[in-house]
Structure formats: C-alpha cells, structure tokens
Amino acid sequence: MTGSLNSAQPYAVSLFRMVTGLLFACHGAASLFGVLGGAHGGGTIAAGTWPGWYAAAIQLVAGVLVLLGLGTRSAAFVASGSMAYAYFTVHQPASLWPLQNGGESSAMFCWAFLLLVFTGPGALALDGLFAGRADRVRAAGRPETVTA
Q1: pLDDT in tens, the chain (148 residues)
Q2: DSSP readout, 53-110?
Q3: Which residue from 132, 125, 97, 131 is spatially nearest to 20, judged by alpha carbons?
Q4: Residues 125, 74: contact at Cβ < 8 Å?
Q5: pTM, full prediction
Q6: Which residues, including other chains, have CB under 8 Å from residue 117's CB and lie 6 or more apart?
C-alpha cells in the first residue's frame, strides 16, 4: 500500500496545490471585484489602500499562478509571506491563538504555501511543460526559440 501511495504523491501534491490556489484566488477576487460575497461580507476594497488592496492583489495573482502551477515556488513564497504578515499584523495582536483571533485561514494559507515552496508543484503543472520544453531544446543543442 505504501508503494501505491508513494506513486500517487506527485498527483496528490498537484491536487493540493490546485485547491489551495483556487481558494486563495477566490479571496482576492472577492475583495477586488465584489464577487462571491465581496470583501468582508460585501463590497470591494478601495483601490490602492494599504494593506488590504495589495493583499487582495497578491491573493488573486499568486492564487492563479499556484492554481496553474506556473512559477509555483516563487508565487507560493510570496503568498506565504503575505499571510504571515496578515497574521502577525492583523490577527495576532488581538490574541495569541488563531482560534481566538480569527486568524485560522491566514495561518493555514501561510503554512500550506510554505509547504508548496518545498514540495514544488507536483506532476500536473504548467511549470513542468515549460521545463520539459527547455530541457528538450537544450538536449538538441540548439538555442531556444519561441514558435507559435
């Protein structure tokens, strides 16, 4: 059974990455565009306001990149850092424990994205397509060109 689970691990990591990225992107879309219930129960965050609008932009962009598996480690690193910042500046001053200060989602997203920094995107990611193409071009001994 361990062998079967180990062989499925890259696909499980991909599924974890996709779900985490989708949920994160939904938070950003809700705050920026007012969809899915909007920011904090309705409406949007005013453009350019610190830190809310910038956090929402990071959530949307990093979430989509992680969902697609494109620049996964870098996007996950930025997303993890933004959630650590959110936890320690918004939630932690109210109370130490996430359950008491409402910071459960910030803490979970922070650690989930940090895990993706170390595991990578898994088997099903656009990173793998582009890395595979670059490896094939290098192996053929010719400069990489872009074709349509």
Answers
A1: 888 888 999 999 999 999 999 999 999 999 888 887 777 767 777 788 888 889 999 999 999 999 999 999 999 999 999 999 999 999 989 988 888 988 999 999 999 999 999 999 999 999 888 776 656 545 445 555 555 5
A2: HHHHHHHHHHHHHHHHTSSHHHHHHHHHHHHHHHIIIIIGGG-SSHHHHT-HHHHHHH
A3: 125
A4: no
A5: 0.82
A6: 73, 76, 77, 80
